[in-house]
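Support reply, case 0932

Customer input (verbatim):
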Amino acid sequence: MTGENKDAPRAARGRDSGDAGLAGRARAKSLCQRHNLLPAEDLEGRRSLIRELFGRTGESFSIGQPFTCDYGCNIEIGEGFHGGCGLVILDCAKVTFGDNVRAGPGCGFYAVSHPLDPAMRRMRIVYARPIGVGDDVWLGGGVTVLQGVTIGRGSVIGAGSLVVGDIPEGVLAFGNPCRVAGPVSGGGPKA
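Our regenerated output:
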């Protein structure tokens, strides 16, 4: 990574994806592999590896198997976080989850993108912007959240959605691209 502020809000930046960050990625891949190979019932062993990998965790959380990330150190999860099996977090920028966030199976959080220009892609340039997910958010299975997105507290994102822009607090949103359908209300559609 470059010497730029990795926490700069919504600031795109480029870096050579072949830089010295490869050592950090190798460490993360090793810890993810160890996590994924532990027996399913070894919850404390899996939590211990995630605590070693992530920048911050709550006391109580669960992450299903398999799990993968780029660096781990840019990921922060709050108390009561649950990530279903097949969770992918590409954390070239900070990815922050509030308390009591539920991410269903097969969710992906991609804080990185590549240039549209093929000449720039050949130079191995990537762009990273942070992702923020507020407290009490529920993301149904197969949701994809792209770089630079913030999802407001208490919102529900329907299964299979592609989230390309910010989602306000307390709403039900779904689709490709993800759009707000209305306020969250008890007994409403399932995500």
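We compared this against your earlier run and they match. Two observations from our side: The first strand starts at residue 14 and ends at 16. Residues 22-37 form the longest helix (16 residues). Please reopen the case if you see a mismatch on your end.
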